[in-house]
Amino acid sequence: MGAHPLLDQLLAGASVSISDLKKNPSAVIEAAEGFPVAILNRNTPSAYLVPAAAWEELVDRLEDIELAAMVRERAGETPIEVSLDEL
Fold first, then answer.
1. How far is CA 65 from CA 1, 36, 50, 59, 69, in A?
2. Tens of pLDDT along 8-52?
3. Residue 53 pLDDT greater than 70, yes or no
4. DSSP state letters, 32-78
5. pTM of whole model > 0.70?
6. CA–CA dist 57, 55 (Å, integer)
């Protein structure tokens, strides 16, 4: 179900205007306390500022999901015995 056309879904617990972000980006990052911040342009989310640790965790989780999908795809394959000398 999508957001109402006049209401934008805010996917962060905090938001800041682009103008305020430009004034002091370090303060915004510090105030976020490790959580994402929605960047607003005319009261509409235009981007999200995601702290490095949160981004790294997100990328790790996505990689885990991709690996799990690969394992599920290969689960029914017939194994082939190979010796280390053959590699």
1. 24, 22, 20, 10, 6
2. 678 888 899 999 999 999 999 999 888 999 999 998 999 999 999
3. yes
4. HTTS-EEEEETTEEEEEE--HHHHHHHHHHHHHHHHHHHHHHHTTSP
5. no
6. 5
Nearest to 64 by CA among 56, 52, 76: 56
* CA 75/CA 67 separation, integer angstroms: 12
For the chain, which domains are there? 14-75 (3.40.1620.10)
CA-wise closest residue to 12 among 32, 39, 36, 28: 36
Q: 17-36 burial, b for 16+ CB within 10 Å, e for fewer?
A: eeeebeeeeeebeeebeeeb
pLDDT-derived band at 86 (thresholds 50, 70, 90) equals confident
- Please tell me the predicted confidence (pLDDT) of residue 79: 85
